[in-house]
Every structure is written in C-alpha cells, then in structure tokens.
Specification:
Blueprint (H helix, E strand, L loop, with lengths): L2 H15 L10 H16 L6 H10 L7 H10 E3 L7 E3 L1 H9 L4 H9 L10 H14 L5 H4 L8
Antiparallel strand pairs: 1-2
Helix pairs in contact: 2-4, 4-7, 5-6
Length: 153
C-alpha cells in the first residue's frame, strides 16, 4: 500500500479518536477580536442579531423565536465529535466573556456550576440548557456573550 495513503488513514483515525484539548484561556489583548469573531460566526444562520441582543440587554425582552437559544448554544459549546455531533460546554469562550466583568475566582465559581452539564446535540436545545444553568445563578448570559458597538470588551 502506498505510504501516503497510510499516513492519511492514520491522520484521519487520530482525528476521529482525539480527545478535546484542555480549554486555553484567551489572552486579554486578543479577547475583543476573538469574542467578536465568535459572535459574528454564531449570528450567521440563526436569525439572532444586534437588535434582538439590544432588546435583551436593555429591556430583558427575549425573542419569541429560538434564535437567542441557538446563538447561546453556538457561543457556549464546541463540537466534541464530528462523527456523532456530540457537543460539550466551552469554558474558553465563557471565561473570556465573564473575566471582563467578574474577578477570576468568582467567574470560575459561576462556570464550575455549569461546566459539567450534559448538552444536547441540537445547538438550540444546548443553548436553552446552558441559559437555564446560568439563570439559576442570576446571570443573564446575553450581558456577557453578546456585544454591541457601545460595549467595552
């Protein structure tokens, strides 16, 4: 068998069975760019936008559709397995978002209560689950994972 085919097969197998990397903290100097990029990525295709975000942040009016939950699920999860579609809670983005407001110890305490929750493969259902976990702690995720032009990141 050709060596290059063996290398490709080995790489594919290692990719499939790879465990997710330990969450790496986003450096302060990159936080704004990374969080803005994540927000733009998660806005795409689910109907959530700046106007809906503004209504949540200013008036606590949530959209009548699932767009907020789909956005939340996108922002706060990562795909663990491409094959199964399994998702896991993403500490990396939540830490970056919460650290801009809370001291590290307080943010870690908030995150610890939600990081082991089982999230659905469906991104919108995952968003509902994660939203609920933070709501129990009186944290409005939209205040931290959504940014308007006037917000300081």
């Amino acid at each position: 068998m050709n060596k290059s085919i063996l290398i490709i097969v080995a790489a594919c197998i290692s990719f499939v069975f790879a465990e997710p990397k330990e969450s790496v903290l986003i450096p302060d100097f990159r936080r704004k760019d990374v969080l803005r990029a994540r927000q733009s990525f998660c806005y795409a295709g689910n109907g959530f936008n700046d106007e809906k975000l503004r209504e949540i942040k200013e008036f606590r009016i949530y959209p009548s559709d699932d767009s907020y939950y789909c956005y939340t699920g996108c922002f706060t999860t990562e795909t663990k397995s491409i094959i199964t579609g399994e998702k896991v809670f993403s500490e990396q983005y939540i830490k970056a978002a919460l650290y801009r407001t809370f001291p590290e110890k307080k943010a870690n305490s908030i995150i610890a209560k939600c990081k082991n929750i089982k999230v659905s493969k469906d991104i919108c259902d995952a968003g509902k689950t994660i939203h609920s976990c933070f709501t129990i702690q009186q944290i409005v995720l939209a205040d931290f994972i959504g940014y308007l032009d006037s917000d300081v990141i």
